Structure formats: C-alpha cells, structure tokens
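Proteins fold reproducibly. Take a tokenised chain:

. . .
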Amino acid sequence: MSPQPSARIAFVGAGNHSTESLYPNIAHIPEFDLVAVCDLDATRAERAAHLYGAPAVFSDVDAMLAEVKPAGVCICGMPDMHHAAGLQVLRAGVPLFTEKPPAFTAAEAAELVAAADASGVWGMVAFMKRFAPANVVAKEHMLSEAFGGLNSFAMIHGSGPYTDIHRMLQFNAIHMLDLARFFAGDVAEVFCHRSPEGSAVQALSISFRFLNGVVGQLNMNSSVTWRDCFEQVYLSGNGAAMLIDSSREVQLMTAKSRFAEAPGVDVAGWGSRYYVSGNLSGWTAGGHYTRGYHGELAHFARAVLGQVEPVATLVDGLRAMELIEGIMQSAQTGQAVSL
C-alpha cells in the first residue's frame, strides 16, 4: 500500500493562538507535513518547532520561502502581519492560509485577493465555524427539501471584554458575520444599533437583508468572560427550524418528525438532536475538533494536495471586511448601508 500523500506546509507565527488552537491539530492531520516555523521571536519559533516536529526554524519569511520551498503556508499573528506576510507568500506563488482578520481594512484584504489572482494561486481565511461539525450538519439539512428553504435567522453571541466596537467586530464578530454568509449568502444591506461611546460593555444589534431575500439578526456583546462565551444560531425554514448551540449540537424542530401520533393532543411537533461525537475524547475537550480548528487546517492541507476545492477563501475574507466597514458606517450614521 502506498503511503498517504502529505503537503509540505510552513507556519508563520508562534504566538498564543497558534500554539494553543492551531499547531496542536497538525499531528491529527495525516495530509499536513509541518516543514518549518517562522517567527520574529527566535525563542518562540524554536519552541513551536520542537513541540510540533518542524525540522527548520526561520525569522524571515522570504528566506523560509526560498530555502524550504513549501507547498503551502499558514500565517497566524496580527492583521498587519497577515497582510504583509500574506502578500509575500502569494507573490511567491504559494497557497495561503491566514488567520482572521486577513488585514486591517477591506482595501488591504482586496490586495490579497488581487495578489492571489496575479500569481494564479489561492488563499483561505481561518473561518473555523464553517468547519465545525454541527454547523456543517445544519447547513446540509438547511439545503434539503425537508427544511423548505431558509427564510430567516437569528444569532446571539457573547464574548469576552472589548474596549471598542470596531475591534470586537474585527477580532471576534467577524466569525459570526462569516457564519451568516455561510448559511444565507451575500448581504445586500445592513443596519446597526450599538452601545453608546465609552460604554463599559460593547454591544451591537445588526439587521441583515441578503441578496436572496433572507433576513437575519446578530445581537452581540462583550459582557462575559472568555471562558464563558455564549453562542446560539436559530435558522427558520418552511415548516421546520434548527437551533445550533455553540457549534456543538443541532436541535431540529419540525412537525414532520414526531415519535408518536399523540391523537387528541395538540402538539406543534417533536424535535431531534445531533451531538458532535466525542470519539476524540480529551483532545476534543479543548474544542479543536468541535469548534472547527481541525477541520479548517485539514481542508487547507487537502486543498494544497488538490484533493478538495478551497473554501472560506480570500474573497470571503474580503466580504467579511466589507461587512464590518458597512456596519461601522451604519452605526455612525444611523442609516442602513447597501453593500
């Protein structure tokens, strides 16, 4: 039996998020061969390389690209690094996986898209919620005849503390904005109410109208701790609905799925639940599988190998940044913004 192919992938960035949420997945992805770690902090780069089995360490992206010649590169740092290092990778003709946000502005995100097009390569953005199994299952059922087509959704998300709403949108709410597009498609118009300037808790309420006629709502606040983040998504169809709890489980509510006829009893319907499997016990406790971190990196490696088409692309990253700028404009003007 021939060995399973693996993609030679380098990693730029060895900070907290990458070492806590991304690198730990690599050993569970046979298609992912970590060939180098690059970080301006040599100590951090050497530690990550030692812990996760990379044979080479660098502090310069161009040197890494020239010497290692990776088939793909992952970047995890701050948005300015995602943009600058991302351009280096794409201009070298290498597929890119970058953490969110892909840049500080929509204009910079558009530069990444243009660089990829110019080099004839592609890139992905780390929108891990697209790869969370519960969301994948919900999307599959949403597209089925039984659901009857999506007509509306409502999202609630509580994050840890933020001092300003723009930062909350870029670093946290961006996941929920991409998830909204994952379920409902491209946005035609947004309107945003927000908490007053200087509030201790940042809060926003965003209304969406999508090109396909779907309407939606995202209510978000920064009033909880990072250990107690809260998230629910409610999808409404035709005679059916789904509730997704923290990307971990899906509850289906429908009059067409009942475990008993219950004659003479007035009932609206019975629900059924899907729970993400715990077959990776211990490792899944950290959320790597259930939250989608494993899935996004595995998909990148398989896309580098040509086994799948890349999703959560640089264009999706650009659309998310455009949404954020539209939301900020609406919050500042009190007017709906067309996109």
User: Anything to note?
Assistant: The chain has two domains: 7-128+295-313, 133-282. Residues 278-285 have pLDDT under 50 and may be disordered.
